[in-house]
Model the fold of this input.
Amino acid sequence: MKIVSSLPFGIENINSENIVQNFYDGNFQSSVSKEHLNVINPSLGEVIAKVPLSTTTELESAIKSAKIAFKNWSQTPIKERAQIFYKYKTLLEKNITELSNLIQEENGKIFSEAKAEIEKAIELSEFACSIPQLITGEILEVSKGVECRIDKFPIGVVASIVPFNFPSMVPHWTIPNSLVLGNTILVKPSQQVPLSSLRIAELLKESGLPDGVFNIIHGTEKIVDLICNHSDIDAVTFVGSTRVAKIVYQKSTQKLKRALCLGGAKNHLFVMPDANIEMASTNIALSMSGCAGQRCMAASAIVAVGQVDKIINQLCEEVKKFIPGKTLGAVISEEAKTRIEKYITEAEKNGAKILVDGRNVKVNGKENGYFVGPTVIDFVKPEMKIATEEVFGPVIVIIRAKNIDEGLSIQKKSEYGNAASVYTQDGAVANYIMQNASAGMIGVNIGVPVPREPFSFGGWNSSKFGVGDITGKSSIEFFTKLKKTTIKWNPIQNSNWMS
Ligand code: NAD
Done:
C-alpha cells in the first residue's frame, strides 16, 4: 500500500496498511473496529488507506469529548475564540501546497481545483474571524425604565456530516463559524475521502484550539444514524445527496434537533441567442467539467432558448480542450464512472444526440484511474432520466425551448433548486430569470454562482432541507440561539446604604 506521505499524524501503519484514526479529546485515537473500507486514489485506482467503521463506544467517546469541552469553550469570550481562526488561517496559507496535494490524492481532482478548496477554506476562516463584529446584541428601551435585549448563545454540540466531492472546503462551511460562535463540533468525513480532515484536526490543534472542541469520527450509514439519534448532539448539518439529506433531516428533527441538510442538484443554464459566444462557451465548459462535474453547482442542463447553435458548436470545441488526467480530474470511483457512462448510453438509446462523447477514456500512465471525458448531449427531452436526475459527472445535456417561459417551466419542474444561470446581454431577460427561476443561487453570465463570503450558500426545493443557509451571515442564526431579556430599572431610591 502506498504511504500517504503528507500525513505524519492521524494514520497508523499496521501490517503495511495505512489505517485512518479518529480524533477526540484533542488526540488521534485508534479504532478497535475490525471493519474497514478502502480509501482509493481515483486517478490511479490504488488503495492508499483504510478507514474504520467506528464503533458505538468510539462515537460515545467523541461526543463526550465535545460535550465536556463545550462547558469552557462556550464561556470563552468570542474575541478569544476568533483569535484561534486568525492563527488557523495563516496555517492554511502556509501549508496550502501540501493540503492541496492531499485533496488531489484522495479525491482525484486536479491540483488547481484542490488549491481552490483551500483558498475557499481561508476565505471561510476569514469570515469567521469577522463574526465578533457581526453579532453585537440588540438593546432598546421599550417603555420608561424598561429595556429589552437580545444575546446570542451557542447551541451545544454540532455534528457536521460531509460528502466526498470537497474533502476540505465543505467541512470548512461549518467548522469556523460554528466554533467561533461557541459550539463544539463532531465531523463525520466521507468514508471515500477521510484524509484531509486529519490535517484539519492537526492544524486546529496547532492554532491553539482546546482539546475536545473539534472531533472526528469515521464511518458511514450506521454512525450517521447514531449521531442523528444521540441526545447529546444538539444540531446536525449535512451535505450530500438528496436521498440521504432527507433521511438525516427526518431522523434529526424527529429527535427534536436543529437540522440543516443540503442535498443534490440539477443546475439549469439558460442560453439566449444574444449571449457572448466566447464568454458563454468557455464559462459553461468550465462549469460542467471543473472537478470532473462533481460539484453541486456544476452546469448540468442547458436550456437553449431559440437559435443558439453557434454557442453550442463553440462549447463543443471548448470541452474538447480538457485533457483527462491533466486538466480534467478523475471521478471518485469505478462505480461513479459506470453510473455516468450508463446515463450517456441510455440517453443515446432514447434518441438524444451525443455531440462530444467522454465514454471509454484511457489515460496513459493512469490506466486504472476513473476518468470520464467531457460529454455534450443535444436534443434531450425534458422527461428523460439524464435531464431530471443528478448525473454528477462532466456531462451536460441540451434541452431545446422555444421561448423563456417554456424554458422556465422546464427548470421549475426539476425536483432540485440549487443554482440556475442565464447567459445574455439583455438586462431585462437576465432580471426575468433572476426573479422567476426556482433556485437558491442565480448566476448572470456566471456558470458556478457560488456566493462569496459574507453572502450565504444554500439552494431551494430538494437541494436543501431546513431554514437558513449553511455559510455567511445566515449561518449565524443556525449556530446560535437567542436569549431575550427584559429588564426593569427601578428609579434610584433615597436609601442610605450606610445606615
Ligand atoms: P452521500 O449522500 O452519499 O454521502 C454524504 C454523507 O452521508 C457521507 O458522509 C456518507 O458517509 C453519509 N451517508 C451515506 N449514505 C448514508 C445513509 N444511508 N444514511 C446516513 N448517512 C449516509 O453523498 P456523496 O456521494 O458523498 O456526495 C455527493 C452528493 O453531495 C451529490 O448529490 C452532491 O450534489 C451533493 N452535494 C451537495 C452540496 C450542496 O451544497 N447542496 C455540496 C456538495 C455536495
